[in-house]
Amino acid sequence: MVYCDANTWAIGFRQRVEASCGDCDDTALNALELLCGKKDGTYVKSISPHNGFWGDWSDAVRCPGRNNFLNGVSFKIEESQEKGDDTAVNDGKFACTRSSEIVASNGTPWGSWKSMKNCPRSTAICGFSLKIENVQHENDDTAANGAKFDCCAL
């Protein structure tokens, strides 16, 4: 797990995604970075447990204004393709405490959105970990396979 500093919470995110590459081995979501900030919305630092192996980083997407933090998360996940090309996690979106959902611009089309998981009332996302598959070399790579988020009192 990686955490925002004391008295800071996640105010936005970026994601590293490998775009569809045709007949090659697609991996989709490779890494996630949370932007940590103070209650006044001031950015403090970014946290990421792993930088991923492939793909490009999206622009940062933030909850607008003051006292507006990430407090829910949902992922677009592709089910196992059996003998096909697996990707696992393809895209992420977050709910903000004082506004609607925010989404990066570089997610891939495969899979379906899972239900939003929210922090308890009066808390916001303050830390997370990613489950990343190691490079498979000659076999099928998937990159991000899961995540855990921690919520801290506001």
Automatic annotation (TrEMBL):
Source superkingdom: Eukaryota
One Pfam family this sequence matches: VOMI
UniProt xrefs under InterPro entries: VOMI, VOMI_sf
GO cellular component: extracellular space
Protein name per the record: Vitelline membrane outer layer 1-like protein
Protein source organism: Rotaria magnacalcarata
